[in-house]
Design brief:
The chain has 619 residues and is an alpha/beta fold. It is 60% helix and 10% strand. The chain has 20 helices and 10 strands. α17 links the parallel β7 and β8. α3 runs antiparallel to α4. It binds adenosine-5'-triphosphate.
């Protein structure tokens, strides 16, 4: 069964007006033209020329039939009949030629268009700041724009050309039919309407049904993805919740099925009624034509024009109306695409370029609120960290540690207060130039399905070929396992592509550390750098971190106090505010939150019965 296309979701609050549709249509046609003027023209011309062929075929067919009828009485020669046949064959050949060129130009035009629009989407996406990706609405727009780029823009162009073609067909067939009597064409047109109205009405109903189901369909899709995901299969098997997922997945299906059955029942009943009405009207038209035939006013050929013309007109009218609704649907997609492309991008190169190493970073009464939220997740945060110093951030989940990293690395800008670099307001400098002085390992670091070398060198692609630099970063990160891989640094990693070697969580983390070391930066940020590492690797990492920290500025986030205590300064965050600050010794002496949390974690290592304080871990 033909289902209407998936509904397009417009940005919330956006209403589509006729003027917008017209502007988007022109904009789309400009995009199509820019993608390939040659193929646009070829496609339009071949479609329009091909649209006149049905009428030409009908007419030559009529002449042939009349000729055959006259031949019985000797009213036409064999060679004249052959001449007509030759014209008919020529029309068939011309039809195939036109449709071959039309298909080829459509395919090439579609490919150029997909490439040019995808490139615009990707360029836009690469220029968007991180907060745009964390905004669900923007992210949805990006996803939809990217997902359907292959069909929608070309759909607008081809449907528009088809509409013009349908008018050519209707006009030319209409002229032929009008010779049979003024009422023939109106009756045939009228007979096409019931079917078209019903299919259009239920097309809209089907579309509405899909729209209503969008949310549930997403949930169902998600449930299905849980059962087919490679990364979750272990947990799903062990907890054995497959039946639960399957039952939920199926209950959504059953809900959809009830709605679909209702729609199909109604559509079939109405479709049958429409077919009856249309047959009745065609019957009336046929009776009138036959009356003229009985009076000898029309030929056999004329009658064939009538009979074959009916199917032609009905098909063309149906195509015309579905083309209009298709264009509307595709224009909604284009609206979504244009509104995504028009999103204001934060120019990451705007501002003075930062040059030279960073010696100090100061947060002065910094507050921050995520876009579209109503709560400050940081309030009045102040601290300074200097070159040669390591500052650790500790605090419970959600306290705001990663948010501080996002502000310090200029991925986000504070909503209150100031970040100062070497005593100057960071906002003066272009984010990208400041970021070039920073290197980082994120909590959710990337596992790039590329070679081991690329996984390291992505931190500074201009040095992709710097084999020595990569090797030294690998050594510093303790990622010696790379040498044991089948092709060493050139081994493709990950399971996504054929021939890739999957690594363990800790091995991926060591490569992410190597990536951090590969960039020659004055600020190093470690967000949970040892979470997946074994004890020895953690120890080695901390040693390396201490060694490099001497001439760099280091920020460290960790829930492991054995790591945190090595920092020169420790900032304790509690619900977005700094609750304690100082060295490990000072904070222990203070006996506040830090000391309590430290003792709590240390007690996990202590022999039963021993006091936690006595058994605090030492490196
Ligand atoms: N993109 C976002 N949009 C809205 N709120 C967010 C976003 N990211 C984080 N938050 C909120 O900001 C607060 C601080 O989050 P943050 O990630 O900085 O915590 P954290 O201290 O790093 O936590 P964890 O120890 O779990 O990593 C949390 O309440 C979180 O819900």
């Amino acid at each position: 069964m033909m289902m209407p296309p998936r509904p397009v979701k417009l940005p919330p609050g956006e209403r589509v007006t006729l003027a917008m549709l017209r502007a988007d249509l022109l904009h789309t046609l400009r995009l199509v033209w820019a993608a390939s003027p040659r193929h646009s023209v070829t496609y339009a011309l071949t479609t329009l020329a091909g649209s006149a062929l049905p009428a030409a075929n009908l007419y030559v067919g009529k002449l042939l039939l009349d000729g055959v009828a006259r031949a019985a009485g000797g009213g036409i020669t064999y060679s004249a009949l052959l001449g007509l046949l030759a014209v008919q064959v020529a029309l068939v050949v011309l039809g195939s030629l036109l449709s071959t060129v039309q298909n080829a130009s459509q395919q090439l035009l579609g490919d150029s268009l997909q490439h040019s629009v995808t490139r615009r989407i990707l360029e836009k996406a690469s220029g968007l700041s991180v907060d745009a990706f964390e905004n669900a609405d923007t992210y949805d727009r990006l996803q939809q724009a990217y997902r359907e780029v292959g069909s929608r823009p070309l759909g607008v162009a081809t449907q528009l050309v088809s509409l013009a073609g349908a008018l050519v067909t209707l006009g030319s067939v209409g002229v032929l039919m009008s010779r049979l009597g003024v009422w023939v064409l109106p009756l045939v047109l009228l007979a096409s309407l019931p079917g078209v109205i019903v299919s259009n009405r239920f097309g809209v109903e089907g579309y509405r049904m899909l729209r209503r189901q969008t949310h549930d369909a997403r949930v169902q899709n998600y449930l299905g993805s849980l059962l087919t995901s490679d990364s979750l299969v272990k947990e799903v098997r062990l907890f054995q919740f497959e039946p639960y997922l399957l039952t939920r997945w199926r209950s959504y299906y059953l809900g959809f099925r009830v709605q679909l059955e209702q729609l199909v029942r109604q559509r079939s009943a109405w479709g049958f009624a429409a077919a009856l009405a249309s047959a009745l009207l065609i019957g009336v038209a046929s009776a009138l034509i036959l009356a003229r035939a009985a009076r000898g006013q029309i030929t056999v050929g004329d009658f064939s024009v009538f009979v074959l013309g009916i199917a032609q007109v009905q098909g063309t009218v149906a195509g015309l109306l579905s083309g209009v609704s298709g264009i509307y649907q595709n224009l909604l997609y284009m609206r979504n695409l244009f509104s995504f492309l028009e999103l204001p991008a934060r120019d990451l190169d705007a501002g003075e370029p930062w040059r030279g190493p960073i010696d100090t970073i100061e947060f002065r009464e910094v507050s921050f609120r995520y876009p579209l939220t109503e709560r400050d997740v940081l309030r009045g945060v102040s601290f300074t960290v200097r070159r040669g110093q390591a500052l650790a951030l500790v605090g419970e989940n959600g306290a705001g540690k990663t948010t501080i990293v996002k502000l310090l690395t200029r991925l986000f800008e504070p909503t209150g207060g100031q970040v100062l670099i070497n005593g100057q307001d960071a906002a003066r400098f272009s984010p990208r130039s400041v970021q070039r002085e920073m290197s980082i390992i994120f909590q959710d670091f990337g596992q790039y399905q590329m070679s081991a070398r690329e996984n390291v060198a992505l931190a500074e692609v201009s040095r992709l070929e710097d084999a020595e630099g990569v090797q030294s970063a690998v050594d510093r990160a303790g990622a010696a396992f790379v040498e044991g891989l089948p092709q060493g640094l050139e081994t493709p990693l990950g399971r996504l592509f054929q021939g890739g070697r999957q690594l363990s969580g800790g091995q991926w983390q060591r490569l992410a550390l190597a990536r951090l070391y590969f960039r020659d930066a004055s600020v190093l940020v470690f967000d949970e750098p040892t979470a997946a590492l074994d004890a020895r690797a953690e120890f080695e990492t901390m040693e390396a971190l201490r060694a490099q920290a001497r001439d760099r500025l280091t920020l460290l986030i960790s829930h492991r106090f054995s790591t945190v205590r090595l920092a020169d300064d420790i900032l304790v965050l509690d619900g977005g505010v700094v609750s304690e600050a100082g060295s490990h010794e000072a904070l222990m002496a203070l006996g506040g939150t830090y000391a309590k949390l430290y003792a709590l974690q240390a007690s996990g290592y202590a022999p039963r019965g021993a006091s936690a304080e006595e058994d605090t871990p030492r490196m």
